[in-house]
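User: Lipoprotein, Pseudomonas lini:
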Amino acid sequence: MTAIARITLLSMVLGLSACAVQQPEPTRLPPIPPSQPSTKPAPPTVPSKPSTPVKPSKPMPRTSASFAPPPGGNSHWDAKLGVYVLDDQTNTFYRQRTYYRWNNGWSRSISPNGPWEETNIHGVPSGLGRQFGQ
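Assistant: Predicted structure for Lipoprotein:
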């Protein structure tokens, strides 16, 4: 091989090897334009009296997310007791197709008008048992 051919071949090998080692240049994003100042004037600041935070009262939920309300009866959900409280019958409650009544002892029924069968604290939802005890 001639000296010119060797030099040419050596130059090509060195030139190509430099391309293989070189890191690619990162792509550049276009610059972010500067933000424009607001054209609205700022509202005047008036010193106010320090106020005490007022906690808004939460309305009691009328229904439960887990249990359906009693059919045709005015009631509200009592989360502490875990039952619906019938609004027009004293100490009468409802949950899962069963009515519960406290009258110096527990009784239960499938209707708010009875017939009622006696039960003990184990036959009522736990929230009722804790509230009224026996």
